[in-house]
């Protein structure tokens, strides 16, 4: 499901608040306003964070492996989420945690 240019597996970053400076992958697009986001460490697959799209910086990077598995309905692990985040962030920025 793709809405407003947001797709599962996409890299996002909160604009403000205690989560600012952290990075997440979109796990699921709930509706036009909300997504579920995970980082594989604090916000694991078992307890994703519901985020308002208005409060997120949408990066153009997508974890293709994760996106493919989510699209096919395959299982993913927290380790895969962490590795995908590290891979996306190593290209441009340091990992903040």
Automatic annotation (TrEMBL):
Keyword Ribosomal protein assigned: yes
Gene3D superfamilies: 2.30.30.30
GO cellular component assignments: ribonucleoprotein complex; ribosome
Entry keywords, A to Z: Ribonucleoprotein, Ribosomal protein
KW Membrane (keyword) present: no
Listed InterPro entries: Rib_uL2_dom2, Ribosomal_eL14_KOW, Translation_prot_SH3-like_sf
Name of this protein: 50S ribosomal protein L14e
Species this protein is from: Sporotomaculum syntrophicum
Taxonomic placement: Bacteria, Bacillati, Bacillota, Clostridia, Eubacteriales
């Amino acid at each position: 499901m793709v809405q407003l240019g947001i797709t599962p597996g996409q890299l996002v970053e909160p604009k403000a608040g205690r989560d600012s400076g952290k990075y997440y992958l979109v796990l699921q697009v709930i509706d036009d306003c909300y997504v579920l986001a995970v980082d594989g460490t604090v916000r694991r697959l078992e307890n994703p964070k519901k985020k308002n799209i208005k409060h997120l910086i949408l990066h153009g990077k997508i974890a293709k492996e994760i996106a493919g598995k989510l699209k096919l309905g395959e299982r993913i692990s927290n380790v895969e989420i962490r590795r995908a985040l590290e891979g996306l962030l190593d290209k441009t920025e340091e990992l903040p945690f």
